[in-house]
Amino acid sequence: MTSENALSRGTPQGQPTPAPGEFAMRFTSTPRGARLARRLVSHRLAQWGYPYDSGPNETTTLIASELAANAVRHGRVPGRDFHVRLTAPLDDAPGTIRIEVSDTRTEKRPTLTAAAPDAETGRGLYLVSRLAERWAVGPRSGGGPGKTVWAEIATEHKPGSDPGPLQRPHG
């Protein structure tokens, strides 16, 4: 199941405004599914004008990887998939890239905790909190079982002109 939306819609003044790019897909709740989700997020952003080595692409891909890995590790219900939804502005104006990962486990809500210095896991949401402008956990859209973890990444440059990888705007 894949959906994409890059059509224009009109404003009240009759001027067309670009709709954001949209990509959505279900993945198996396995490490392979998480890896595929990460790769497709990066690939879709590159198709939309955010090169693989740009800050928005690398940051969003890292966040997608962490959220997908958490969905597989902590949100897995046997026989159920996880869902990824990506939206991004396609025009020259600054905007927000939004990544959402939904799983079917309602009772396991992620929390930001401090990992022990020698721990091999437990830093994913810390990375998300540092790289994303905003992130949160909410109910799964459509009234389905589970939850959605989302993060937003600000883009200050038009697609294809970002100054470098993993640079978060400070202001």
From TrEMBL:
Domain Histidine kinase/HSP90-like ATPase: 27-150
Keywords tagged on the record: Kinase, Serine/threonine-protein kinase, Transferase
Pfam families documented for this protein: HATPase_c_2
Keyword Transferase: yes
Sections of the chain in a coiled coil: none
Keyword check for Kinase: yes
Ranges for region Disordered: 1-23, 137-171
One Gene Ontology molecular-function label: protein serine/threonine kinase activity
Name this polypeptide is given: Histidine kinase/HSP90-like ATPase domain-containing protein
